[in-house]
Design goal:
Length: 255
């Protein structure tokens, strides 16, 4: 097998625990971050994305000590986002073992931070996370937890972020978050064709076949997954899971 896209568990930090949301609301506790990272170590997950959903919304300080402990425990590359506003905070996170900084809310008012990170650490160290949802027949970027629309075409907005130095674009489908109802494959194909850096898709993943279509057929480089790797069964019992190597080989070898 010459190529397999990255399949990335996306963990939402709230206080000291991990939660899962539904359309960015109603967080449900799913476990301790350290224990969860140990499980994904055992599964040999490709990467991890850790997003602190309170750092920006409630203006709580970045939990540097906890993030350092999580990074020390993780055997795979770790990306972190949440409340990052300064290059000094970025330096502390990188020194703690974080490999990529995910910028979300800072993209609108502090987009120069993308350039500062890119110039100091390389563009591969900064991921621009864009929250999107449909208005009419088109997708638009939103900020402030999906409440404020960016009055610009999504393609133009994303291209600006790439020009400022973003090494990856992460697109979060707000209305798909936590639903496991599948991905908008046509849109993924259209937007991926317009972006010349890797694209990570998040929100709505319901199966490995969905990931396969989004990546191998429609051009995404990776899929970030929350609910599918957090719950199991019709009752949504909390069960941290991840496909094993044989299952991945079976799916992606027969592309």
């Amino acid at each position: 097998m010459s190529y397999r896209p990255r399949i990335i568990p996306c963990l939402l930090l709230s206080g000291k625990g991990l939660v899962k949301t539904l359309r960015f609301e109603n967080p449900v506790y799913i476990g301790d971050p350290i224990n969860t990272v140990k499980i994904f170590n055992d599964f040999q997950a490709d990467e991890l994305i850790l997003l602190d959903i309170e750092s920006t919304a409630k203006k709580t300080p970045i939990q540097f000590d906890l993030i350092k402990r999580i990074a020390e425990e993780a055997y795979m590359p770790l990306s972190y986002g949440g409340g990052v506003k300064t290059i000094e905070q970025v330096a502390q996170l990188i020194n703690s073992g974080v490999e990529k900084i995910v910028l979300c809310s800072a993209l609108e008012k502090q987009s120069e931070l993308i350039t500062h990170i890119s110039e100091r650490y390389g563009s591969q160290a900064v991921v621009a996370c864009v929250d999107i949802k449909k208005v009419g027949s088109d997708y638009f970027a939103f900020v402030e937890n999906g409440k404020k629309l960016i009055d610009m075409s999504l393609e133009h907005y994303v291209q600006n972020l790439v020009e400022k130095g973003a090494g990856e674009i992460m697109l979060q489908f707000i209305e798909k978050d936590g639903t496991e109802t599948g991905l908008d494959q046509d849109f993924i194909g259209q937007i991926s064709a317009t972006i010349n850096v890797p694209v990570i898709i998040a929100g709505g993943t319901d199966s490995l076949e969905t990931i396969k279509t989004a990546t191998l057929q429609n051009g995404a480089s990776a899929v970030a997954v929350g609910s599918l790797f957090s719950f199991l069964g019709s009752r949504n019992s909390v069960m941290i899971n991840y496909p094993d190597k044989d299952e991945l080989n079976e799916i992606f070898t027969h592309a």
